[in-house]
Protein 1
Amino acid sequence: MKLPVYLGLLREGEEILARSFRTVAEGHADEPDVHTILDTLAGQCDRHLEVLHPVIERFGAEVEGEEEHRVTADGVREVRSGPLGLLLDLQDLYVLVQHIDIMWTLVGQAAAGSRDTELGGIVSSCAPDTELQARWIRTRTKQAAPQALLVAR
């Protein structure tokens, strides 16, 4: 069974995303909406990690030794400055969110296939948060794009 591989990758991805949300929030503190909302989204990732804990205890979480199955991401470790920097940082976050979104989908398929109601409930409660994260980032990048791409120097 390879579900522990995806549970490990999902845990790792949520940890990286939470850290990245906080890094971008702090680095763009001059954008109040970005700071506040990204802190909130990081909190969602923290909650995902908490609710994943029982199924990780039950199934395990393998990451080491599965490098051939991994798409790795270090997340956002430092932010760029200015309007273009914000746009690029948000774009990096969007890629991370999409990576996690597909993992929730696949783990959800495993839950359905195995009729695991606990895991299915976790996916049902967490996957919508990830979709919301993607929608917010997409909307905020649309708002930032004209300034960053046409006006900023």
Protein 2
Amino acid sequence: MNFSLPEGWTGRTLAGLRTRLLNWFDRERRDLPWRADRDPYRIWVSEVMLQQTTVAAVVPYFTRFVTAFPTVAALAAADEQQVLRLWEGLGYYRRARHLHAAAKTLVADHAGALPDDAGVWAGLPGVGRYILGAVLSQAFDRKLPIVEANSLRVLARLFGYQGDPREGVGKEWVWGAAAAVLPATRVGDFNQALMELGALVCAPSSPKCTECPLAANCVANRAGVQEQIPPKKKPKAITEVGEVGVVIRAEGNVLLCRRPGNAARWQNMWEVPHAARGGGEDVSAAAVRVAKELTGLDVAVDAELATIRHGVTRYAITLVCVDATLVGGEFASTFYAEGRWVAPPALGDFPVSSPQRKLMTDLINPTRQPRLF
């Protein structure tokens, strides 16, 4: 579906809308560390981090990341384990791996430059339509649109779009709308302003329409249907999964295993061996089985350490972690890329998933008390 302006809208209507939104942005914009300049590297890192993550969560990660890797060359030279460790907790770790791989490409093929060239950016790992538009519009004022959750909501309400702008023809429509509203200059600021308006004013529920600089033009506001646009996402069916994790100890050390690079998630990150429990399977029996299947080691199970609940896509996982002592065998795995025996104080040096970090923190805590089953 091609985008077209609502009936009665003119070029003057759009011009006024652009001016009011940019004026609002100049007054109300948040002071965020990646807005200090138009450095394409900093803009790029921030936009990759902000995908599917809130601004509040990203700020401390961004600061640490660009302190450790202040340039694309520094990022390219880094070890992937360093990159993953600094990304730890942000989730969607494929973003970090793509960012790292793209930095290596920019150094190898473009002498570390981040050029004003859409063709170069489109060929980088992890760069899709959104990142392309975000970096080039903000760093180089290229007239390219961006669409994410906040700007999508603003545009759907502003133009009164009744369909779902997240998929199918609705997705085509919203990208057309995002392109149609762009000004000739200050394109990057305008793109940011749309997102900022969605974050601060045009909220998913109870939008602050009386504070909105676009309220006079907003079709949804005039019709009183702000709460119905865009339509709510259909909830995903959640599957409950029970897992057991095994903290295998030998001579004061703990076995950490590195996931393979082709794993479904958490590629190349570290963890204690864990897997799903069978229906009705005893925790202790499951721990012995999982240790043998994943590491080739024979263990004796001691006490329960922790129960960690977390979600992955459409799964709600309950991970019961147990202490175990090595009885015999040599590490051999058809799944894990490698295994290392690590002293507990060094567990913080390895990149791990958020649920595993909860366990590592517990293991490092000297006051931890084991629990009986």
Protein 3
Amino acid sequence: MMRARLIYNPISGQELMKRAIADVLDHLEGFGYETSAFATTADENSAKEEAMRVCQSGDYDLIVAAGGDGTINAVVNGMVGFSHLTKLAIIPMGTTNDFARALKIPRNEPLAAIDIVGKKQLLAVDVGRMTRETDDEKTYFINIAATGALSELTYSVPSNLKTTFGYLAYLAKGVELLPRVKKVPVRIEHDNGVFEGEASMIFVALTNSVGGFERIAPDAKLDDGLFSVFLVKTDNLFEILALLAMVAQGTGKHLIDVNTEYIRSRSLTIEPLSTTQMLVNLDGEYGGEAPVKFDNLKGAIDIFVNLDEIDDDNYIGDDEDAANASVAQKFAEEVTKIEGTQH
């Protein structure tokens, strides 16, 4: 019999996962796995160290990561290097669930998510590796690295607000931060050349889902070995709002706007050209400061995905997608009101 280890965050999704443990393990056993579970602790390395222990043991065929993007990121960081010894499945129970969105895995529905394992649809997905040039430390991410004005957004929202208000907590914090956006001079070396200029936000994406916005990188693929790098070159509030509206509409026009730069590259370096601190956010977690180097590790982890819907160009999302699209529109409206009161 195959063996599976469930690594779960007991406080994710208003503790819904904790209540669903028995049923999740029962479903896994129905798919032929001998199962056991590990609840993460307050130690920030808890999920990472357990994933590393599981992979190093060589006794498990599958790790199931249950929690938000941060929990999934921690498990991936523990698996890289042993990733083809153990497969990964995810049960998304967080606030934005960006990676699950890209994989078309049901969010905050533990049993529907674990049933993806039963479909036996595997994909070798890319993993991003970030190396800090100051200390040569390597960290990994599965969905998005971001730096610039709003990179602090995810980790500046208190955990209790994420749990209580979910996506609306990010909306409120975004409204607060957006008027303070400032562009800084940067140098970005990539496969096809060099960008040197000012940018207020930089996104290095492995999927097309960022912060609840779908199609911010519409040609991003899970397994092509390339980053989709999106730069915002303006700090003008109304120009940023116009870009947000384009992203929400899903037309791709934001990629060719005069205020943006779009790059596809297997590797890149980001270096600030001023004394301004550039914090890096990896899958919603603090990742240190630039200068940094990014490398795409093509097909680094075998993960159970919903291939039927990933391959469907007509996928229209679910009720949560529709709700978040509405929130994105309200975001722009609310910031416009705030700006209007300042004149």
Protein 4
Amino acid sequence: MSFESDLEPAHSRRESAVPAPAERPPHITARDLTMAFGSLIVMRDLNFVVRRGDIFAIMGGSGCGKSTLLKHLLGLIEPAKGEIFYDGFNFTRADPDARERMLRRFGVLYQKGALWSSMTLAENVGLPLGEFTDLSAAQIRELACLKLAMVGLRGFEDYYPSDISGGMQKRAALARAMALDPEILFFDEPSAGLDPISSSLLDELILELRQSLGATIVIVTHELPSIFTVADNSIFLDTETRTAIAGGDPRELLAHSKNPTVRRFLTRGREFGETLHNG
């Protein structure tokens, strides 16, 4: 059995859950995007489209600018050149009020989870609801409990982050990211620090949430099992050329890319492929 066929079951479940790529309109568009810190160019001339309902992976080696690109998409860093559009709306050129309204349609899962240690899980999840809605305390509590139940944390509402495992903390942070029913979810290395079983469970949860919520998901990751399990679109950032050298479904890139840098990243030598094959 080949490396590609070993991954087929998860891929088949993923594709059956959402419309075919050609049927999904553009949700995020980057045009001629250049990222820089002063005179230091991080990445130049990035052009890509994230379709509505995609799980879009930002891939590349360490230090290539994956998290920096995520921060650009969130408006935390301004591009040196180029523009970012959401549903055709020019996010880069928008005034602060328009940007703020757009940002309320986003949910973010930070790499470390970023839960408040002095708050219970329900209080953490309810924080954005209290900040941006007029709901009563009882309604906020009810919605927070619902979001926690969606990520498998029913019964843990009154636990503190220190009371639960790292994998559970990531799920609680995901529940908080979903609090305002966002159209787009941004994940920065969601599997970082998790054991393989917890990471696999988180991948399955991401797929289930995309199916149930219909959200577009942008994920920064270098974890190959996660990339091949969840992503159906991607961009590959290359540190040597300082631009994107590949994009599309990672499985298609694995099967057809002739670029040695892309293939080296997607196979990581024989060890990864043999692990999947023998597993």
